[in-house]
């Protein structure tokens, strides 16, 4: 009986340690299949809202652009900085104070996603009802467009008059999900943002 118990214990230990090794390998090394089709919501967002970008989450820093606030994730804010993430994953410095460290696996996933066009795989529901500048556009502007290197700092400040005057340019940007029309270079914009702006323009830019 004692020999049987010892045998079972040894066998269980072998299985346990071999499982841990395989799991660790799977977690730390992205497979070729994973890298061939990166999901923004499933692969990129968890990296950005984790410890690597802690200052950008839940109001921990008043000077940092927020990617999350408790249970709310600002997808467009994350998408709009795809180029910055790719630069840092490629070894460049964090554009602000401090630093961000991506693990080799995280860096590989970010670079693969950027090479695939930094797209959002989410298809939002159709926009229904009135869309106004005050209620719908301003909150998007504050989370997507404002930042120290964007329209809250180096870029021009945008208000209702400016957006109205540039509606054709904005239409081009939103119709191409940010690939065209932005004077500061291509952006990656999520479907909810583009659909909201296009609905606002189609409704005559109500304030």
From TrEMBL:
The name this protein goes by in its record: Cytochrome c domain-containing protein
Native species: mine drainage metagenome
